[in-house]
């Protein structure tokens, strides 16, 4: 998921802002707090077979991760932009 170089609405430069590992960190934390209790609850409530667990939880984890990550990354980039964390990189771009 690549960040657009500039905002489609206002033209603000965004491509120089690097969120690095923060979006995956928050995504893992949020998805983990949904999936792990769901696994424990389902085991307590129905005791499904191992193959049922294997069929449900990895797919749900992947789906939630792919669904949440772009929005969490957008939120992190918004906070970094609002805090002016990358103003120096805008003035003195790092060679790619
Ligand atoms: Zn904008």
Distance between the termini: 17 Å
Q: Count every beta strand, where a strand is a DSSP E run of 2 or more residues.
A: 0
The low-confidence parts are: none
Radius of gyration: 19 Å
Q: H/E series, N to C?
A: HHH
Q: What is bound: which ligands?
A: zinc ion
Q: What is the typical, i.e. mean, pLDDT?
A: 92
**Silhouette:** elongated
Number of helices: 3
Structural class: mainly alpha
The helix fraction, in percent, is: 55-70%
Strand fraction equals under 5%
Number of domains: 1
Task: Report what the structure shows.
By secondary structure, the chain is mostly helical. The protein has one domain (22-91). 66% of the residues lie in helices and 0% in strands. It has three helices and no strands. It has helices spanning 22-46, 50-82, 87-91. Helix 1 (22-46) runs antiparallel to helix 2 (50-82). It is elongated, with a radius of gyration of 19 Å. The two termini are 17 Å apart. The chain binds zinc ion.
Summarize the structure.
With 96 residues, the chain is mainly α.
Label this structure with key terms.
96 residues, mainly alpha, 66% helix, binds zinc ion
Which secondary structure elements does this structure contain, and how are they paired or packed?
Blueprint: H1 22-46, H2 50-82, H3 87-91
